[in-house]
Amino acid sequence: MKELTESKGVYIGLIHYPVYNKHKEVVATSLTTIDLHDFSRTARTYGIDRFYIVTPLKAQQELAQRMFHHWVHGHGAAYNPVRKEAVSKGAVKSNIEEVLEELESIHSKRPKIVVTAAKSVGEKIGYRELREKMGKEDPFLILFGTGWGLEKNLMQQADFVLAPIRGNTDYNHLPVRAAAAITMDRILGDRE
To answer: Which of 92, 110, 112, 145 makes an SS bond possible with 150, Cβ 3.0 to 4.6 Å?
Structure first.
């Protein structure tokens, strides 16, 4: 099995559109700046090649770009070099097609798309099985939805639907950044 500590060919996306709101309407959600920091740190900790913020909203793209610039090239880069290292893994795209095009140009093939959901949706793959597949194949793009989850057509484009994270209560509403960190640890974390 390929060593997963370096995780070449593994990417994550935080999807702000198309996602659902609580009324099951397709919407674009607002970016939260803490997600950029936390996704950056998770990506760097688990050797993710790049993480993508996906939003069609120009103002939200500009906010993300300003933050990335501040931590990678601006005052933040000198103030906190560790944060610079993590944030440099981030990118902003308008839609999932742009992400797929970029990854296809890097790898000369379409990545395997893995989607996540808080509820069981269709046939799912477990963390151990996905870890094994990732050790044999690449590239992989793991998508996390904001709002009330990824829109169904995006879910149907996936090669794999990852089993939901379950706690030990009936409450199941983790923040997306926590779900991403748990997911990356289960798939790419040190098993010793």
So the answer is: 145
Closest listed residue to residue 43, CA positions, set 30, 54, 52:
52
**Which residues, 6 or more positions from 135, have their beta carbon under 8 angstroms from its beta carbon?**
1, 2, 4
DSSP three-state, residue 142: strand
- What pTM value is reported for the model? 0.92
- 31 burial (CB, 10 Å; 0-12 / 13-18 / 19+) is buried
CATH class of 10-188: alpha beta
* Cα–Cα distance for residue pair 36/40, rounded to 1 Å: 6
How much is the pLDDT for 78?
94
CA of 23: how far to CAs of 27, 144, 148, in Å?
Answer: 10, 19, 9
pLDDT tens for each residue of 65-106: 999 999 999 999 999 999 999 999 999 999 999 999 999 999
Q: What is the DSSP code (8-state) at residue 168?
A: S
